[in-house]
Q: What sequence folds into this?
């Protein structure tokens, strides 16, 4: 049931991105263009997402079991460390330059010009390089 729920949630999320035009890189770049033709649409989408997420976390905090069984995942690590700062900076710079992040990129594959598959390949390559570097770092003698 958990995989089915994840699939339905992913489809709903992807459809929301397409309907709201957030899978369009130009929409995101217009939001980032504060001194040009600024488009505040993304801000409203973010506010809605934060509001919906906050309600979900408030409900989840009061539960000991997940809705479809199993234990509730632990809360995210509240500490701000170097990995979080560097990762956030890389994500933000890439998002601002390209206008895509993972969720909208997957949704944009439905009507993708050549740039979206190229972005996906670069993103997946970055994930593999990160995983390999983490494994090498963990196996290196201290």
A:
């Amino acid at each position: 049931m958990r995989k089915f729920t994840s699939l339905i949630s992913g489809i709903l999320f992807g459809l929301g991105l397409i309907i709201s035009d957030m899978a369009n890189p130009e929409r995101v770049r217009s939001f980032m263009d504060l001194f040009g033709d600024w488009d505040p649409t993304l801000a409203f989408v973010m506010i809605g997402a934060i509001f919906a997420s906050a309600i979900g976390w408030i409900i989840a905090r009061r539960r000991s079991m997940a809705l479809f069984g199993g234990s509730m995942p632990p809360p995210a690590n509240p500490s701000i460390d170097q990995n979080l700062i560097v990762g956030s900076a890389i994500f933000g710079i890439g998002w601002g330059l390209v206008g895509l992040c993972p969720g909208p990129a997957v949704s944009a594959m439905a009507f993708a010009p050549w740039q979206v598959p190229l972005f996906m390949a670069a993103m997946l390559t970055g994930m593999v390089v990160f995983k390999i570097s983490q494994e090498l770092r963990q196996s290196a003698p201290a």
